Amino acid sequence: MQRRPSQGSKKKDKRYFPLCLDLDGKKVFVIGGGKVAERKVIPLLECGADVTVISPSITEKLRNLFKKGKLRYLPKAYKRGDLKGAFLVISATGEKGINMEVSEEAESRGCLCNVVDDPDASNFIVPSVVKRGRLLISISTSGVSPALSKKIRKELEKRYGREYSLFLNLMEGIRKRLLKEMSSERKRKKIFHSLANSDLIRVIKKSGILAARRRSESIIHKYL
């Protein structure tokens, strides 16, 4: 594998490719056991990742997760060779020397690696995220201004409320049903488009999910 160029030779106008990763069952190592590491571990567990934390000490919350069998914990300092089998690595030690060692080993193993607050030592960065159930809205300034990402995230959190999560739950059930019962792909696409562009989200917010179910059936009925 080619070495990552030194900081001085990096492109000034770096571009990132956005994607969503399926981490279910994947081995993920988090180096560090403080509050920053804790914030990284929680969403990884929510995605079904097989998380191992390596750190001489960990927060109380991480220790409770370990006791419940939610994650693996190696109570020691990181050393080269610890990342064997890793799919993704996050280094959150706050120690630049250790973070660089983690980055170098991850690169040699072909792993995805994020060093917190150091994009140049990472081969991916973590965006700010608005989560509403299945809805994920990611915001990134390509590492230039995390503060702006945070500002935009707060604005989007006000704009997209819990009704979007309920709408997607409703759509999931409808989609499964129509894929099973309706053979015409063209007709299904028309229904999905009509539902997405209807007033269902407003109905959910104003009158609740039962009213939205009735409304969705009236829309679907037009195509039957």
Report on this model:
The structure is a single chain. The protein is of the alpha/beta class and 224 residues long. It has helices spanning 35-46, 60-67, 96-108, 146-159, 162-181, 185-196, 200-207, 209-221, and strands at 27-31, 50-54, 72-74, 88-91, 112-115, 128-132, 135-139. It has a five-stranded parallel β-sheet with strand order 3-2-1-4-5, sandwiched between helices. α5 runs antiparallel to α6, α5 (162-181) crosses α7 (200-207) and α7 packs antiparallel against α8 (209-221).
- What gyration radius follows from the Cα positions, in whole Å? 22 Å
Work out the helix count: 8
Largest sheet: 5 strands, parallel
Strand order of the largest sheet: 3-2-1-4-5
Structural class, judged by helices and strands? alpha/beta
Helix content: 40-55%
Spans of at least 5 consecutive residues whose pLDDT stays below 50 are 1-9
In total, how many beta strands?
Answer: 7
Overall mean pLDDT score? 93
Distance between the termini: 56 Å
How much of the sequence lies in strands comes to 5-15%
- What general form does the structure show? elongated
What is the H/E string? EHEHEEHEEEHHHHH
Q: What are its keywords?
A:
224 residues, alpha/beta, five-stranded parallel β-sheet, two-stranded antiparallel ribbon, 8 helices, 45% helix, elongated, disordered N terminus
Brief description of this entry?
The protein is built from eight helices and seven strands, in the order E-H-E-H-E-E-H-E-E-E-H-H-H-H-H. By secondary structure, it is an alpha/beta fold. Helix 5 packs antiparallel against helix 6 and helix 7 (200-207) runs antiparallel to helix 8 (209-221).
